[in-house]
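#struct-help
A.M.: can someone run this one for me? Single chain, 158 residues.
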Amino acid sequence: MATFIGDFVCKADAKGRFVLPSHFKKVMNGMEENRFVFRKDLHTNCLFAYPYPVWEAHIEDIRSKLNMYDRADSLAYRQYVRTATEVSFDANGRMLLPKRLVQIIGSPKEVVMAGVDDKIEVWNSADYGVGEMTESELDVYLQNKLGEKSNTEQKEDA
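D.P.: on it. Structure tokens below:
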């Protein structure tokens, strides 16, 4: 399983390509993969970049929870999947993101690529970090969520 950690400022070149940070490229090379699937996050104004195998597992998980004979499930699945786009990076780590995706985050010339476990978030650098919890809010939240019992213990109690 790929794990992406860290955040990196990336500037577009003259052709509008962004270079994948070397740390992220190493993770992808370890997976022997050069393809991502990009889609807009449902909750924030950023893009998610899933390594292709992670995307396949993600979609399979969603598909397993939906009934494709249910109209609402089918429409939601179609909308979720059709807004995704496969993007490859070259030997130098350069990627050309489709204009429609770059427009979603404000057509920036500079983005932040932030590793978040098995995917990368791509943010307009002007928006990155806006609306985050303070350190003390994060501390309280995690204490309430994780302080007394582990996630495994909580699931067993349910």
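A.M.: thanks! The chain has one domain: 4-131.
D.P.: also worth noting: The domain at 4-131 is CATH 3.40.1550.20 (Chemotaxis protein chec).
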